[in-house]
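Human: Note token order:
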Amino acid sequence: MKVKASASGKLMLFGEHAVVYDYPCIVTTVSPQVYIEISNTGKEFEVDAPQSKDTSFVEEAVKLFCQKYKVDNKILIKTYSDFSSKFGLGSSSAVTVATIIALCKLYKINISKKEVFDLGYKVIRTIQKVGSGFDVASATYGGTIYFLTGGKVIEPLPVKDLSLVIGYSGTKASTTRIVKDLKPDFKIIDKIGKIVEEAKIALVNSDWKIAGELMNQNHQLLKSMGVSTQKLDNMCDAAVSSGAYGAKLSGAGGGDCMIALVSENKIKEVKSAIISAGGEILNFKTNI
């Protein structure tokens, strides 16, 4: 028997770093996906992952799943992906969730999305030791979600026509290292938490002007925490100067991606401005 499953990557819209300290965040999916194919072989467990040297997330997901549901691991897992892990878009969480979903199909085990999240979060915490789980929730639920640390709240948001330009800084950052090394200023963290609550309302109401202003504020707070870079700042400034509603780094910082909230008629100008600032445009769909 052979089964297939997939899960999407993510982009943080609001609330990175604050979410680690029990504050909410808002995250959305991006179109690139990780795909899993599992076959019953009756032989020793094997992973075929030509695009990745690190198979630890798949292996841990299989281990915990088989322990929890008391099934064997005599399977072959093949993985492939639409996107490179260099972009910091949550490929580890996506491959973990896709593996769990495929295992459920293979063994005909019906579990809820929350149970998929809980098991996936356990996998991520086991390997990385840190993390709030928002990327696991995004891969599990899809779309745009409001999330509170550890899955205390996972609320899908009815966000429509979210138009983002995504810029890659050219530098791969280590989320785990940045989170571990960060010494939080809780006055700043609290301000970010309040921005998330305001942004939730603005996004649901499609109030892009307010949402953009909140993005700018969120970026400045992250910048004051020391997690931005000059390149990310330049890309965000260029986006806003060329007509974006707002822009901010997306993720842990130190590199990886920034996002700009734009109107349809400003996309071309904003993309050109980000490229002029040294960024690479990632033409991914969001909120899928």
Q: What stands out?
A: The longest strand covers residues 24-40. DSSP finds nine helices and ten strands in the chain.
